[in-house]
Amino acid sequence: MEKVLLTKEDMFVAFSLPGENDIQLYKHDEDGKHQFVIHPFIRESVDTTFVKCRSVLINPIIQFQNDTVNVIQETKKEAYTTQASHLLNAIKQGHFSKAILSRIKTVDLVDPDYGRIFSALVNTYQKAFCYFFNIPGQGSWMGASPEVLLKSDDNGFETVALAGTLSNPEFGEPVWTKKEKEEQQIIVDYVKEKLDTRNIAYQLEGPRNSVAGKVVHLKSVFTSNQVIDPVDVALALHPGPAISGFPVDKALDFIDKTESHKREYYCGFLGPVSDNHTTLFINLRCMQLFRHSVSIYVGGGFTKDSVIESEWQETELKSQTLLSVLEDSYLAVDGIK
Asked: Is the pLDDT of residue 331 over 50?
């Protein structure tokens, strides 16, 4: 396997598609034919980036040097509780029916080997879309997302409505409450509206259970035989209520005024793009990388029936997707196991 030394001055993306063991590395070349799109949560704050390359490296040994200092503040529980209280009051006053509140969890690391951590992430979550990218001036990110925004090829496309989160039970089926079912139906109705507006015919299946590591979600699938521009349709669907709230505009305004951090690429979308096959994923379960720490971004949906402590615990559960890999990686790196 080829060793590749990368720094924060290099634009690149490494990724592994769900169900595949291979890691593909695109190192940016403006004349390259292979493309990978990285779109932020809100385009006004960070621009859309296309990473291009002439030749794809398969399963390289990545060595990444990053001396960036982390100045992002962690969201303390007290601050989260205050923000959540304001959110619930806004819902009860009828400003919107749902909103997503996110927070940041900071984890200190000693001389992190991000290439090794990424390999561990891919090996641990083989059913997820795993990625590791750096954009000079914008930062370095890594994640494992369970959520497909859109898949397209020469025969049409499919998109999903995914929401609701429960701990994945060791035995039996998850028991969904009214809160999770309503949360997921909001997403279904939103996607229907966007596709109907574009006169796109589709079939709808679901909802069904969708397992993502230690959690499980409700998922409905829209399929269509119409050929589309995948990035164009993705931009029409994004940012949807699953990552903002409903109505979307009012929820986005609340998020901007309430959250103490900028989401940047968290809840954006990303994935490889080509003329005959494109798969785009929502950037969930992700972290921003720094010299001696990572900032993990997690969030959850609030409706009128939400309980703040339960939502906090849900974000703790979601953070375990990345925390477990960091812990395992560093036990190995430090020679403890």
From this structure: no
* The predicted structure's pLDDT at residue 336: 37
Amino acid at 174: P
In the structure encoding, which two tokens stand for residue 177, read together? 């409450």
Q: What is the DSSP string of 56-95?
A: -EES-EEEEE------PPP--HHHHHHHHHHHHHHHHTTS
Q: What is the pLDDT of residue 332?
A: 38
Strand partners, 203: 223
Asked if residue 336 is part of any domain, the answer here is no
Residue where the block lists tokens 């609701």: 164
Closest CA to 88 of 264, 312, 319: 312
- What domain count does the chain have? 1
Per DSSP bridges, beta strands 57-58 and 3-7 are: unpaired
Which secondary-structure segment (H or E) carries 129? strand 129-135
| Within a domain: 123 | yes
- Least Cα distance to 144 among 173, 124, 167 occurs for 124
224-248 confidence digits (pLDDT tens): 999 999 999 999 999 999 899 989 9
Q: For residue 300, count other CB atoms closer than 10 A to its CB.
A: 20
DSSP 131-179: EEEEETTTEEEEEEE--EEEEEETTEEEEEEEEEEEE--SSS-----HH
> What is the per-residue pLDDT across 17-68, written as a single tens digit (0 to 9) for each?
999 989 999 999 999 999 999 999 987 767 899 999 999 999 999 999 999 9
Residue type, 308: I
Domain at 98, CATH number:
3.60.120.10
**pLDDT in the model for residue 280:** 97
The C-alpha atoms of residue 89 and residue 304 are separated, in whole angstroms, by 9
Answer yes or no: is 159 within a domain.
yes
**Domain housing 65:** 3-329
pTM to 2 decimal places: 0.88
Are 131 and 142 within 8 A, CB to CB? yes
Instruction: Return the higher-pLDDT residue of 122 and 180.
Output: 122
In a domain, 98, yes or no: yes
Degrees, nearest 5: CA angle 149-153-157: 45
